[in-house]
Recover the amino acids of this structure.
């Protein structure tokens, strides 16, 4: 059985999509688009060099566009202080007393937690907001700052 050039391009595109599923690299999908463009030009009956040029142009072009679009998008906050990753960020709690080293032990969500102070002024008892979670330690700052 003799396969056409378009068939080989479609197989290459499918292989890149499958590889993307394993690797998780969105760039492989852009290269698969290039292979699909090569297949479409093969269906039009163009020569091999035109197919390769079209595939390279579309693949490299979409990869470059995706790369620059991603580079300009804002980065998310680190996981320890990202509200999307940890719903405790932004919640308030009461700190009854502070130790000399800026730590305290508080009750939060029904259990005892270690708390670390983050702020410019000296830690004072009262209401604080959670700004980060580092392992089993809550990092807090005074409410309103």
């Amino acid at each position: 059985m003799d396969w056409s050039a378009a068939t080989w391009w479609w197989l290459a595109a499918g292989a890149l999509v499958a590889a993307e599923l394993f690797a998780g690299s969105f760039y492989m999908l852009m290269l698969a688009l290039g292979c699909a463009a090569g297949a479409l030009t093969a269906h039009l009956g163009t020569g091999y060099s035109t197919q390769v040029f079209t595939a390279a142009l579309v693949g490299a072009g979409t990869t470059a566009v995706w790369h620059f679009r991603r580079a300009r998008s804002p980065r998310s906050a680190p996981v320890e202080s990202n509200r999307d990753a940890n719903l405790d960020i932004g919640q308030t709690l009461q700190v009854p007393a502070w130790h000399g080293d800026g730590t305290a032990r508080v009750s939060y969500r029904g259990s005892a937690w270690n708390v670390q102070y983050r702020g410019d002024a000296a830690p004072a008892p009262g209401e604080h907001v959670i700004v980060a979670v580092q392992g089993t330690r809550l990092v807090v700052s005074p409410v309103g700052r």
Q: What stands out?
A: The radius of gyration is 27 Å. The mean pLDDT is 91.
